[in-house]
Amino acid sequence: MTVPFLKIEQLAQRFPSPDRGGEPLTVFENVSFGIEKGEFVCIIGHSGCGKSTIMNVLAGLAEPTEGVVVMDGQEVKGPSLERGVVFQNYSLLPWLSALRNVTFAVQARHPDWPKDKVKAHSYRFLELVGLTGGAERRKPSQLSGGMRQRVSIARAFAIEPKLLLLDEPFGALDALTRGSIQDELLRIWRGSGLTVFMITHDVDEALYLADRVLLMTNGPYARVAESVEVGIPRPRSRDQIVEHPNYYKARNHLVHFLARRSKELAGREHATASGQPETVRFADPGDDSPGGEGADPSQPALRAVNQ
Amino acid sequence: MQTFNGLSLGIRSVIVSIAILLVTLGVWELSISSGGASAELTEYELLTGGGAPKAGVPPPSEVFVKAWEQLSDPFYDAGPNDKGIGIQIGHSLYRVLAGYFLAAAIAIPLGFLIGMSPLMYRALDPFIQIMKPISPLAWMPLALFVIQDSQASAIFVIFICSIWPMLINTAFGVAGVRQDWVNVARTHELGTFKTAFTVILPAAAPTILTGMRISIGIAWLVIVAAEMLVGGTGIGYYVWNEWNNLDLTSVIFSIIMIGLVGMVLDAVFGLVQRQVQYSE
Ligand SMILES: Nc1ncnc2c1ncn2[C@@H]1O[C@H](COP(=O)(O)OP(=O)(O)OP(=O)(O)O)[C@@H](O)[C@H]1O
Ligand SMILES: [Mg+2]
């Protein structure tokens, strides 16, 4: 087995909690997984299970209590411009215009570039997310939520990182805007060789975007229990994807996991020694052998299909 | 009435302001000219051994004449006790700005360090809390004794009174910068100085400017009292001197000038504040 591009090994994060008589709060433990170069991976889990905490560790913003993260053969020991981050709340600097928010990042990446080159480069990425023609001169407070998210994505793309980390980037957007920015994200990602790690709450979003979906059990002592291979060929389109036989198998599996098994599997006693998630792969179309075990079609969807 | 209500709020408020001004001036003018010189001595005049012919409160018309006279030649200099209002205000402004910018030069960098370090924030808090409520004038004897110079002592008093709001607001603003923005700086591998200047400073600027605006207001309040104590020059000394001359017309005129200069100072800082303001 070759070493993956991003390797997470035996990660654990514990926070001191004074109100528990000194016993620390273990958010997650024994988290190990790998991500291949160019892969698009989503992670799903209930609120509070520690997804953002994992992402902060991957970004280098937080230090894990135990374990290591290795990217491209190098241990992650702090934030780096090799890892672009799109924060849950966009985190644009409100005193700068949309354009200046992007040039801020480009300047940091290329301190030796002249001003006009920085500007041209920034413009190119704002154009990519469809944010030019006057809007780039506005402050974030004068932009809609969707436009802010585009700026935030343009900022992350403009530094041309090797790994893109997205924390529920579309959570606050309406279904229509979400759909169009998802498509933009896929368009930019395709052929760029970029590796994407994205947190989401939305099962359909994960199935539309990801190659693989990681499933987290509930905290405390959360872990990544399963790795579901979506197995739907690209390019995907929203209306055809639902006709693919894997789609409902995968969807049922995810919904069922969130509704029931994330709770059943919670706790330390279910942990495996290696911490590696169990791989779930669905059978080829036409093949009737059971693949998505435990799928229960009667389970209600957690979220409506967003179209 | 109908047409009045049809006007914009801005115009209506100006009309009402002018009306209040005219009524006040009218009542003032009438009450003094009818009371006249033959009025009995007030208790205050008795207490101050008054009853001198010039001791009555002048009507606004006299103040206007005085203002015209003074403002048409604000920079005349006829000896230590007779200088134009412009020169006096100039002296006061010099002291205020010198003390103020000295304070800013120390308070803002220090406030930055305090705000960035939770340890220093807590450690210095008791000292700041004790120093803050001390009337700046209480420092005056100590300042005169140590510095041995009245001009520098006045500047020191301004320094000490304007430092606290700037220090506290800077520390508060810096400590309250959203962790998200600091994380943006970190993910872009900005160094400490770059982070301080490109992220923390603009983020905390509105709070810092609020502190600076409070400070300049306090400094201008304090300079009048300080100059009454140290004497020599300045608008505070001028008020006190004219009171000793029992020239109440000049006293009222200078009171109005103090108000106007204070208003201009505040407006300038208000303008700067608006430049650095941002909405999330
Ligand atoms: N700095 C911290 N100190 C103490 N506890 C923390 C800290 N940061 C996070 N936690 C705890 O860790 C747990 C996981 O938080 P995290 O933000 O990672 O959840 P999440 O999976 O991202 O949730 P959501 O989907 O709602 O964003 C929570 O119980 C939270 O209270
Ligand atoms: Mg989160």
Short structural summary:
Chain B: Keywords: Cell inner membrane, Cell membrane, Ion transport, Membrane, Transmembrane, Transmembrane helix, Transport. The complex is a heterodimer of chains A (307) and B (280). Chain A has 307 residues and is of the alpha/beta class.
Topology (SSEs and partners):
The complex is a heterodimer of chains A (307) and B (280).
Chain A: E1 6-15, E2 25-35, E3 40-44, H1 51-59, E4 66-71, E5 74-75, E6 83-86, H2 98-109, H3 115-128, H4 145-158, E7 163-167, H5 175-189, E8 195-200, H6 203-209, E9 212-216, E10 224-229, H7 238-241, H8 245-264, E11 278-281
Parallel strand pairs in A: 3-8, 3-9, 6-7, 7-8, 10-11
Antiparallel strand pairs in A: 1-2, 1-4, 4-5, 9-10
Helix pairs in contact in A: 2-3, 2-4, 3-4
Chain B: H1 2-6, H2 9-35, H3 43-47, H4 60-72, H5 85-116, H6 118-131, H7 140-147, H8 150-175, H9 179-187, H10 192-230, H11 235-244, H12 248-276
Helix pairs in contact in B: 4-12, 5-6, 5-8, 5-10, 5-11, 6-8, 7-8, 8-10, 9-10, 10-11, 10-12, 11-12
The complex binds adenosine-5'-triphosphate (ATP) and magnesium ion.
Question: How would you describe what is shown here?
Answer:
The complex is a heterodimer of chains A (307) and B (280). By secondary structure, chain A is of the alpha/beta class. Chain A contains eight helices and eleven strands. Chain B has one domain: MetI-like fold. Helix content of chain B is 78%, strand content 0%. In chain B, helix 5 runs antiparallel to helix 6. The longest helix of chain B has 39 residues. Chain B is globular. Chains A and B meet through strand 6 and helix 2 of A and helix 9 and helix 10 of B. Chain B: InterPro entries: MetI-like (IPR000515), MetI-like_sf (IPR035906), NtrB (IPR005889). Chain B: Pfam families: BPD_transp_1 (PF00528).
